[in-house]
Amino acid sequence: MNNRLPPAWSKHLKGRSAPPAKPPQAKPLPTRPLPPSRTQADDLLLRQALELQKAERLPEAEELCLKVLARTPNHPLACYILGTLGIGYDNEKALRYFARALAEEPRNPYYHLSLGEAYLKLSEFTPAIRHIQEALELKPDLVEALCALGDAYNSFDKGEMALPLFEKALKIERDHPLARIGLPRALTSLGRMDEAARHLKEAIERRIAVPAAYNALVRTRKYTEEPPELAAILRELEDPSHMPEEAAALHHAAGKVLNDVRRYKEAIDHFKQGNQAGGQTFDIGSYRRWVDAVIETFTPELVASMAAYGSPSEVPVFIVGMPRSGTTLTEQICASHPDVHGAGELSKLRRIANGIGLRDSADANIAKSVAAITPELSKTLAAEHLAYLRERAPDSLRIVDKMPHNFELIGLIGVLFPNARIIHCRRDAIDNCISCFVLQFSEAHSYSADLETLGLYYREYDRLMRHWSKVLPGRIFENQYETLIENQEEQSRRLIDYLGLPWDEACLRFFDRAGSVNTYSNWQVRQPIYKSSVKRWKNYESEIQPLIDALGDLADT
Predict the structure, then answer these.
(1) In angstroms, rounded to a whole number, what is the distance separating the alpha carbons of residues 156 and 57?
(2) Can you count the helices (H) and strands (E) in the chain?
(3) Do the beta carbons of residue 468 and residue 410 sit within 8 Å?
(4) Contact at 8 Å (CB) between 83 and 7?
(5) Pairing state between β 421-426 and 316-321
(6) Closest to 329 in 3D by CA, of 120, 469, 152, 531
(7) How far is the C-alpha of 515 from the C-alpha of 504, rounded, in Å?
(8) Beta bridge mates, 476
(9) Would you say 162 and 136 are in contact if contact means Cβ atoms under 8 Å apart?
(10) Taking a C-beta distance cutoff of 8 angstroms, is the pair 431, 534 a contact?
């Protein structure tokens, strides 16, 4: 999210403010122009809050903003800053504060834009697009809004609608990093890899968002011999001025190229350095306790008793599993059927879960939250979720949500949608974990940054999935990645049959499917099925012992 301060503030606050991804690792982001405060005292406190935000002293920044609101309720700038503090960490909180700021100044384009971006982070595409369009009506040349609308369309699998927005943004501001990276991202989602690569190379030549551009560039193709980009990336890594996240992007870019050209030891070294540069940590003990609570609460008897109040609809299909387990490939096969719509990775179910207290946090009381789900609430939540899905494809018989981490919420799915299809994608445990480790995931996947932690996390995922198979016996389709690779037609037919639909030959040519694909796998899903990803971990065997040890009996070596 991009927030520019007004000229009046710029002389006081040089540099960038820091709406956080998650304390204490807030990431600095640009600021956007805002009106001055209404009183001198408020003005002083909010300047201090922005300085504290920039210094990543986030609780102190929040405290000052709350002081302003105690004195001047609904002060728009105080609400706005509190909203930026929530983005990426507590998006519901961000939504509330941006809405309050907008209520005070309904013609402020930056407030509309920020609210739209908050909705976008929650996968609420309809209100996101509405508010970003309103921002553009108020300020047609607002580059950040053009790029945000492009991102919204891209996230909504409408890459063809995103392209002209990024192109317009570049005409207004030729070197704006959001536009420079956004345009090739839209092209990549549409499978136009060569054009995307050309734009990324131009961004690199013009020194715009260089680490991100290199990381995106190397994913537009598979290399068979060492390209000149590798030496350039390694030279960039010698520059000490790169931020940690930028260094991480460069290490992952180098690792990807080295992996392609089969220099595996060098590749894994860069992947390790990239993950270390990100500085992410994960509390596996806390997560294990959360899984314990979920298993203890969602018994087969409880889910069966509550399911009577959910929606009988057969429209929802949930593809779940670890990231990089074949979820995108599975969705593409299903969505190639004329009666199936692939909606991509949606955060709606997670938002519902968080709203009723099922969030993965140390203070979560899972049993109490589930006990509070009344029959009326079940019906309301299911109807709301179904309407949300229907926005994407009003006439489709099945709508697929392929958010992998919905594996944590299968109990909730069983309560809200007793007739929903659930496809669980499994893959060789070591292959799956290595495929996660070598990607620069967001902080939401911080478990993947360390080999031992990743293996222990996989064990918790496996334990939870074994529990769900007892809660919903016979209801979950186990889609083994290696089986799908080996017997594409046979397994694809099983998938479509599980969806309750007649077979369609288009499902065998999923890679010809039109439309945009937004995933780390967007190059792979444009190709016919290939087998080189099976037992890929053998290339790294001497370097990944901590992972193998952590997986224990799940490591089928």
Answers:
(1) 35
(2) 27, 5
(3) yes
(4) no
(5) parallel
(6) 531
(7) 19
(8) 422
(9) no
(10) yes
Residue 99: exposed, middle, or buried by beta-carbon count in 10 A (0-12, 13-18, 19+)? middle
DSSP 470: H
Residue type at 459? R
The pLDDT assigned to 38 comes to 55
**CA angle 514-518-524, nearest 5°?**
75
CATH topology of domain 284-554: Rossmann fold (3.40.50)
Q: Alpha carbon 235 to chain centroid distance?
A: 30
Contact between residue 190 and residue 516 where contact means Cβ atoms under 8 Å apart = yes
User: How long is the chain?
Assistant: 557
Cβ atoms of 258 and 227 within 8 Å: the answer is no
Cα gap 398→320, rounded to integer Å: 16
Cβ burial of 502 (10 Å; 0-12, 13-18, 19+) is: exposed
> What is the phi-psi region of residue 123: left when phi exceeds 0, alpha when psi lies from -120 to 50, beta otherwise?
left
Tell me the HSE value of 424 on the side-chain side, using a 13 A CA sphere.
Answer: 19
Rounded Cα gap, residues 459 and 447, in angstroms: 12
Task: Give the residue ranges of DSSP H helices in 307-408.
Answer: 327-335, 348-355, 366-371, 375-392
pLDDT block averages, 10 residues each, the chain of length 557: 34 28 36 55 89 88 93 92 86 93 96 95 90 98 97 86 96 96 94 96 96 96 95 96 93 97 96 89 93 96 95 98 95 96 92 87 83 95 95 94 97 97 97 92 86 97 98 97 93 98 93 58 52 76 94 86
pLDDT score of 129: 95
What type of residue is 453? T
How far is residue 453's CA from residue 458's CA, in Å, rounded to a whole number? Answer: 9
Calpha distance 465→213 (Å, rounded): 37
Q: Where are the domains of the chain?
A: 1-140, 284-554
Structure tokens at 279: 């500085």
Residue pair 56/15 in contact (Cβ under 8 Å)? The answer is: no
pLDDT at residue 29, as a whole number: 39
For residue 244, which of 279, 269, 213 has the smallest C-alpha distance? 279
Residue pointed to by tokens 């070294």: 269
Cα 54 → chain centroid: 24
Which among 102, 108, 94 has a CA at the least distance from the CA of 34?
Answer: 108
Residue 424, both tokens = 């669980």
For 109, 165, 212, 217, 359, the CA distances from 184, given in Å and listed in that order, are 26, 12, 11, 9, 35
- Which residues 6+ apart lie within 8 Å of 418 measured at CB? 307, 308, 310, 312
- Which tokens belong to 551? 């997986």
267 is written with which tokens? 């590749």
Cα gap 59→151, rounded to integer Å = 30
Q: How far apart are CA 117 and CA 123, in angstroms?
A: 10
Are 287 and 364 within 8 A, CB to CB? no
Give me the CATH topology for the region 1-140: 1.25.40
- In three-state secondary structure terms, 465 is helix
